[in-house]
Every structure is written in structure tokens, then in C-alpha cells.
Amino acid sequence: MQLRYSFRLYPDTGQQTALAKAFGCARVVFNDAVRAREDARAARQPFPRIGELSRKLITEAKQTAARSWLGEVSAVVLQQSLRDAEAAYRNFFASLKGARKGPKAGAPRFKSRKDSRQSVRFTANARWSITGSGRLCLPKIGAVKVKWSRTLPAQPTSVTVIKDAADRYFASFVIDTDPTADQARMPETDQTVGIDLGLSHFAVLSDGTKIDSPRFLRRAEKKLKKAQKELSRKQKGSKNRAKARLKVARTHAKVADARREFHHQLSTRLISENQGIAVEDLSVVGLARTRLAKSVHDAGWASFLGMLQYKAERYGRTLVRIGRFEPTSQTCSTCGAKDGPKPLNVREWTCRACGTVHDRDTNAAINVKTAAGLAVTACGAPVRPGTIPAQREETGSHGLPTEPRAA
């Protein structure tokens, strides 16, 4: 399985300038590739192949006065930018044909130097390395200081240097993990659990445990409101506006980092303690269109479920998603009688069939576990009829699960 390990970078002034050149050159090559293909489409001509694009947009372009500065950065960065454009078109056409899982992929768009995220990727043939002093040595950029929070479990296959909206730099390494070693780190257990996700509590487990929702965005709203008000009062194009924009971006980055860390800690704990996990397949996109949209986005359910999914596969656990239309909040977990729908303000109810008093969320979590069919055999292994293993994430350098990154 492939994972990303991200670490914070601290380039000096000269290295920041070199990275800015690399970001810009990669962006220009990507845009040139998109333009060449769009021109071919408008002329009803076959799409130029990547070899032809590489020759015209990189090799020959370097010999011209208009694109001579492409030679100031590593050629691998430019080649990877072409491959990114190729992958974007491949995903777009696969999505049109219905062969690609997940949300629909749109047609590739031109990149802008004002985009909140800039990145370049170095593969093994770029001859990047990690020095004995722990610095990341990149071609035509130099040895960049890295904040290592842990050792890499294996030799990385590639590294992507990322600059986010808060002007922070990260090195994202792609690692091929050993499934046998990963599963040995977490021995099998006979515990199974059902999870009911919510807003008043982030998660309620079938054993009655309630995990409070941190509400990171809500807690930062006062600070964000002040920062955004200051930004709106700055003159467009001024240096003070750039400083105010950076302040807003850094506040949002802190919120996102805190939420991500919470999701990683909780998902790792649930995976380590339980052999089988049942969750409800929520329609986050639909819920985000309601009046609860801000709270739904603040909870980050989709991100949390994604972490559960790849960690379940990595450590040999079973993750089962039940249908979102399963009446988990209407069914008595004791006798199985369906008591009908209830408004959200009803947090406790009594079953009219057997008289059991239920906590709404705990009862739903138990029903989620029951609907998933999780059971324990005599040898302690979880089984269910027609077991659905956790789906594997896309391999390659795009869309990989991400381990928590260093601050």
C-alpha cells in the first residue's frame, strides 16, 4: 500500500526563490499542455501524445527566447507537470465514461500563479536525496531544512514539495508500506464496534462511549471574523492586503490542522481497538446543502471516514458501510420494533413494544453494528455474510492517504 508522509520544510530566501521558479515553470508547462490539447480539440485533430508534447513544450521550448528560462529548473519537474496534465485528462475521460469511481472529474483547467496551492514533484531519477545532517537536497534548489517528526519506514519513491495558502512549505514523500509488517503492528482483537456520527457529539459508539465534537471552526470564528474584516478593508493589490490575506490563511490552516490531527488520533484508536467497524454511509454533499452546512463541514465526516477506510485496509481490519436509508434511529435495538421517525430534538425515547428506554445516538450506533452483520467467531475473528473489504485508495502519487504531518 502506498502512503504519503509529510514534513514541514524551512527553505531560506534563496531556496524560496528557486522553488518559486520551479512552481512557475511547472505551471507554464502544464498550461501549455492544456492549451495544446484544447487547440487540437477545437481543430478536431487527434490529441498530441505526451512524447510529442515533451519535445515541443520542453526540449524545443528551451531553445527559444520566450521559454529559455525553463532550463533554470530540473527537467524532471517539467516532465512530471506534463504527466499531471496527462493524468488529469485520463481521469476526465474515465469519469465521462463512468469507469472512474467517486465524484465526477472535470476537464483540466489552466493553473494560476495566484492559486492557493503550488507544488512540484521530484521522482527518483531527479537524484534528490536526504543528507547525513537530515536536509532534503533537491536539484537546482539546494539542501532544504526539514522538521523530522519521525523516521521514514522505507525508501521514498518520490517527493512533492508543496507551498500552501499560508506560505508554508511541506515535503510529501510517497512510501510503499509492507502489509505484513503493518498488520503485525496491530494484533487481532475480538472487539467490534458500530459508530453513529453526529453534530452534538462527533461520534457515539455502540458500547455507549460518546466523543465530543471539538468544533474547531466554531471556536475560531471570532478570530476569523476579525481577520476577514481587516482583509476586506485593505486596498486591493497593496502589501497590507497581502499581509491581511496571509493572516486569514494561517488562521484557516490552524483550524484544518487541528481537525486533521483529531481525525487521525480517533481513527487510529478505533482501528487499534476493534477488528471490525461499522459506519453509516452518510450523504455529506446533501447535508452540506442544508442549514447545518457549516457544522457539517466543521465536523469533517468525509475526511474521517476516508482515514478509517485506508487504515482498516492497512492494518487488516474490516470496515463495513451500511446504507444511509437504514432506519437506525427508528428501530429498537432490543426487540427490533420500528417505532417511526422522530424529530432531531428527541434525544431519548421509549420503545412502545418492549418498554426499553433508549438514548437516540447509542441506539443508532447499536443498530449500525447490527445492520452491518458484524459477529465474532469462536476463534475471535470478525465475520459477516458477504464481507465487503475496505476499498483500496488510488495508487500512484495522486490521491494517496496522508499520514499526519509534522508541524
List the helices and strands and how they pair.
Layout (H helix, E strand, L loop, with lengths): L1 E9 L2 H30 L7 H10 L15 H23 L20 E6 L5 E2 L5 E3 L3 E6 L10 E6 L5 E8 L2 H7 L6 E6 L3 E5 L4 E3 L3 H17 L6 H35 L2 E5 L3 H4 L5 H7 L1 H14 L3 E5 L25 E3 L6 E3 H13 L2 E2 L5 E2 L24
Parallel strand pairs: 8-11, 11-12
Antiparallel strand pairs: 1-5, 1-7, 2-6, 3-4, 4-5, 6-7, 8-9, 9-10, 13-14, 15-16
Helix pairs in contact: 1-3, 2-3, 5-6, 6-9
Hey, roughly how much beta strand do the residues contain?
15-25%
Query: What's the number of helices?
Result: 10
State the total count of DSSP E strands: 16
**Strand order within the widest sheet?**
2-6-7-1-5-4-3
Structural class: alpha+beta
- What is the mean predicted local confidence, pLDDT? 89
Helix content: 25-40%
Order of helices and strands: EHHHEEEEEEHEEEHHEHHHEEEHEE
Low-pLDDT stretches: 376-398
Largest sheet: 7 strands, antiparallel
User: What general outline do the C-alpha atoms trace?
Assistant: elongated
The gyration radius over C-alpha positions equals 25 Å
Gap from first CA to last CA = 25 Å
Tell me about this structure.
With 407 residues, this protein is an alpha+beta fold. The chain is built from ten helices and 16 strands. It has helices at residues 13-42, 50-59, 75-97, 179-185, 216-232, 239-273, 284-287, 293-299, 301-314, 360-372, and strands at residues 2-10, 118-123, 129-130, 136-138, 142-147, 158-163, 169-176, 192-197, 201-205, 210-212, 276-280, 318-322, 348-350, 357-359, 375-376, 382-383. The strands form four sheets. It has a seven-stranded antiparallel sheet with strand order 2-6-7-1-5-4-3. Mean pLDDT is 89; it is low at 376-398.
